Amino acid sequence: MMLQMLSSGIAAAASKPGARIAILGTDDQIYACSGDCSKTECITCPVKGLRVRDDSGIKPVSLMREVQDEGPLRRESPATPSIKYGWPTFSPDGGKLAFSWMGQGSDGNSFGISVYDFARHDTTSIFASRSERIDYVFWTPDGKSVSFLLGEPQGLSLIVAELKEKAPVRMVLSGMPMYYAWNRTADRLVVHTNSGQEVRAEHVALMSLTPSSQEVIRTMARGRLPFKTPCWSPDEKHLAYVANNNAEAYLVVADADGLNPKSMVSLPIGESSFVWAPDSRHLAYSSEVIGADSVLHGIRILDLQSGESQRLTSDDVAAFFYSPDGRYLAYISVPSERPFYVWKVADLKTGKSRKLDNFLATQEESVSYHYFDQLALSHTIWSPDSTSFVYAGVRLLVEPDQVGGPTPEPQLWMEPVDGSAPHSGPTGTLAFFAPAS
What percent of the chain has pLDDT over 90? Predict the structure, then answer.
């Protein structure tokens, strides 16, 4: 079957005006836009400016740097380090954007995190290292600090940095894996990690943090724990995680302090993922298909009050995402033996699902899908009004049996949940909305 792809824009508004979006461009720069993304601001370009869409396509801002001498503007020197950016992460109020960077120069590599302030139009560097890469960026819910994971030879380290240049950073703990969630006041942390080489060292623990101290309050589960991220319900009345009891895994819901745990669902063999509904009364969960590569089998919705769960879909899926108002669950269906993904959305009020788009995912988007349950705490693909979501990729017009030959550059797509035509934006490999404030 001949592969057909859609790379031109469709004039259909897909998000409410003013909703800000962060984009990782195909040039490894970070951009931001609002509304229909007809004007895109480059956050990280050496000379900041706008990318304006017109009939001829995207015009990139000049990558010229001003030189402090008597000569005219000239292009950056070949000796200037090459910098790649990643992990654009909005602050809880959407007013700032944290991002990681990696520089490659004649004197070696460098890594760091910077924060852009949209109101002040300036950037602050809050962390830099010569050896440790940045694997993940997550604002503390109070917006005062940025937490992140450093990739080190012995595993991952969880670091917290204030929004100040050259301020000391705080190492909370190290281990592998390392998944975590903050409470609303950023003085408690729930972690899923392994502090040693043995399987029995894997654990879920609740920690208390003050400006001068930190301690483990309670260890809630030990042993082999086939899941990623423990997390509080949005109202912070409950804490969910996976525990192992006599070699069987259970989805557990406890009080916010980790007490009174209750095994809600027995889980099949394979790693499981779950996300809280905004109403704090439901959990969407799924487990991997054994032998398949990061594919989850179906999605079920657990009702905490009744303890019953209902199947939402039997599709194999890569990830799923609640809308801010809790009415919709967007999910990525994985067709059997087909080289593409399918966006679908379930209306949880009517119980009906709608197919939206076939698409090819970028490498960056694929990574975010694999860790979607952790990113559900720090990033959102949904517009604040729950009418649309964003993704970066190549939108397909048909269902190809195989993909071959050149493809268009991936770009931003704003996908309405009502099934109307999506709206295209600039080229890019990863995209997120600012959170609803």
Answer: 73
